[in-house]
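Thread: Newbie trying to understand structure tokens

Hi all, I'm a second-year student working on a class project, and my supervisor (Dr. K.) asked me to get a predicted structure for one chain before our next meeting. I've only ever worked with sequences, so writing a 3D structure as a token string is new to me. If someone could post the tokens and maybe explain what I'm looking at, I'd be very grateful. Here's the chain:
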Amino acid sequence: MARREYPVKHGVKVFGTTGENSWFVPVSARDKDWNLSLGHTWQVRRSNFDTMMLKEAEARGTTIMRGTATKPLVADDGSVRGVTVRWSDGKSEDIETQVVIDCSGQATFLANQRVTGPKYLGNYDKQVAFFSQTTGAVRGSGTSGEDAKDNTVIFYAKKFHWSWFIPLDKDVVSIGMVTPNANFLAKKQTPEEFFRNEYYDINPKLRECVPQMNLVEKVHVIPNYSYQVRGFCGKGFICIGDAHRFIDPIFSFGVSVTMREAEFAAPLVREYLEGKNRNGKNPFHEHQIFCEKAIDNLEDMIDLFWEQPFAFATFVYHRYPDELTDAFSSRIYPTERQPSPAILAFRKLLKRTREYDKDDYSVPIGSRYHPERAAIWEPNSPVDTTEQWMGAR
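---
Reply by user tm_fold:
Sure, no problem. This is what the structure looks like when written as tokens:
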């Protein structure tokens, strides 16, 4: 499929509670001199995108082996030396490797297998997302800027209540909403009943954009999605993207953060395979703190959006439009002039500091850590909370 057949995105538009006021974050790029310029991007279905990536990997010499990883192979010193794979015929095989890259997303393979440090639920874990796809939605009327017809749109209701509208192709739009899980449990409805009954209450503008729900697939549900994995790098392994941390999907950072982390990890893995940096408990510790600092910047931005939405909108439009455009574009890493003045201003309003301890993590603060709770699992814990947490999902 040619690029021109994909919906063109010029940015993200966010509507406030009444559906009358909005703010817009454009797609932009930085040149080598750090000058900002407007641009555009494309919406590609995840299945198509994954297929492109797979074919490109094969074209570059990768051998694709289709199976299910069931457990890691761990050496006596705690290093990971491969995985056990179950093939489609039901047989299992141990595959020895020098490095295991965990890209399992929210399945958090290595964390659930207790290879990493403990996994903690964050402050957004009591929410649940409902989503499907519809035809007949009303898009923007423009060809560029904030009214471009295929832009992504977010509808804000109140803290932890929001909805999205994402054109996927010329006919189909992804629609979804996030709400506290308690609301869903109290109604005792099926996911589709709840979605149809509650969706339009998120924001008055939604009725205009989605006159009718002509759903073309079932309503999906994802609960309890906020977590952080400590110790996600170590001897013989690296966790990438959602395999170690996820906050709140409102600004859709998941894929971009995953790809950028992979980009930063690739040369480190090559060096490791060449025999470099093999000493020490965690040969990838610098990469680990590099990624943590970046996602901390995102967390501070998302937290301020929920805690002080009016201040956030003021920063986007008036005080720090360029710096926040950078953040929305996932230019969040220490090598990209981060934390920016905008992020530092957010921390001041949140009364938050970021100081990194000897384990390469910021001191537990903010939304992602609750000392009054146990972790999903703790090393050597007398009580295994993993099954309890999985049951709650």
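A couple of things are worth pointing out once you decode it. The first helix runs from residue 46 to 59. Residues 379-393 have pLDDT under 50 and may be disordered. Feel free to ask follow-ups in this thread.
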